[in-house]
UniProtKB/TrEMBL annotation:
Residues 368-441 form the DNA-directed RNA polymerase III subunit RPC3 winged-helix domain. Residues 176-199 are annotated as: Disordered. GO terms for molecular function: single-stranded DNA binding. Residues 152-343 form the RNA polymerase III Rpc82 C -terminal domain. Residues 8-68 form the RNA polymerase III subunit RPC82-related helix-turn-helix domain. One of its GO terms (cellular component) is RNA polymerase III complex. This is DNA-directed RNA polymerase III subunit RPC3. Belongs to the eukaryotic RPC3/POLR3C RNA polymerase subunit family. Its main location: nucleus.
Amino acid sequence: MVTQYGIKLVVHLLTNQFGNIVAKVCESLLRRGPLTLQLIVRFTELTPQQVKSSLLILIQHNCVQAFSLEQQDGLQDGPKANTQYLALFNNILHRMRFSKFLKIVSGEFGECKELLKGLLQHGRLTLKQMVEREREKSSKKDGNCEDIVQENILKLLSARYVERCPIHEPVLATPVKDDTAKRRGAKSSKRNEESETIEQRVLGAAAPMDAQRFSIITNTGSNVSRETSVGEKRKYDALELDRESAAEEEEIVLLRANFEEFMCRLRHKACIENVRTRLDDGASIVLRAMLEAVRSLEKRVKTEKSVPLSLNTIFEEVMNSEEGRGMTLDRVRASLVQLGCSSSARGSDESYSIDLKKIVELAQNDEVESIVLKRFGRNAYKMFRLLSKTGCLVETEKISDVTFVEKKEAPKMLFKLWSDGYLHMEKITVAAGRQSQFLLWKVNKPSLQEHVLDEMFHAALNLSQRVAYEREKDKELINLPADKQVMSLEKRHEQRKNVALVLESSLRELDDAVMLFHDFEEPSLLKLDL
């Protein structure tokens, strides 16, 4: 779900970090979809060299993915590849969350934080480059530095926080449209193709297999060609950042941060916090234990239901946590009922799975209701909550009666909610004796979620611009002559620090809400046809 203010927000992020030219190239891709180099030059009116340099920067920082689309050329025997570039909206947006990613790794592997920081800062690095960065910081010239870096990288790979970079330019086959292929193709495969977006197809084709995705070379020397996977040794072909750098013959393995794994962890955290607030500590402890038990099996950020676990397995996992050691088996079973876990019989054991999608939806409802309460007041909140729970059209007078809102005040509040995009309205005219008109109201959740998300992107853009403005203002004040400075440098620094803390804290909290609506649930994306 990419909204207009969402595009403006990520363009602002790129402008602050890489400048106007790079941001302009990416904005063209975000607004127009995949483009060739020639089309980007045409739409941006930049020079080919400027566009090429911008694309290399964006690819280096995982903001753009190149791919080729096979096209059958009647004048040639073989297929003709056409290189295009696709902007990755989510990866750009994740740049706001780097501090959250670092906090996760710092909590699990404190000594690995600097390695991840380097990957987030530079986008993609080889093991050799990471070793060199560590030597510059620690001033270690012996081989011990290389061993430490490799050991820490293996920890991050085993936890799936770091991964190999995707294939530079995967080739997507153009769907064949002849009658023979249509007869051969199954209905299920047709549905899958229609449901996949161009971004999903490209990223799926570019992603290496897990055995290769989470592996690392054992030595940074040019004479060594062995590799160690997490758990076994495998051979792997050279990876390239771009075609121009392929002249080097030695194998290059580029590593980057695995945003998907970090988003899984943040989604788990959001679900646990919502359950703690909505239910109690016992339910949140059981949920955390279940999520930890299936962590290695969860492959997608937006998994709807967790892998089924037996009651004994859940109880053992609860006992492994310090806060869960005081819980009994009956208390764990009661918490599973609270969580609404669906149970099934597997042999002699009961197994339970948690509906994560439902927890996310409940958290979204809480967030929207909180916005309505703060913006429109308690009476509007009561009417909105009634319509949200009812899920169907309700007449104005009935809403007023159920919520105990005055009949004169209710229509005004409902119109206000409708005009601001929070309600859907329908007019019905009844001709019985004399003509009467009724207004019916309901909450249209898909359109409401898109509207709320766009408002959140707008607010995040305003906060980001304010943070950038405060930084520039501080630079101007520091450069003022001493005779024109109103307050001391110490006071000005303390004032700037306090303002920055408030703004950055507000932006982090707002981003938590953005993730709830954009990253934690499958959005209704607009599919781009090739």
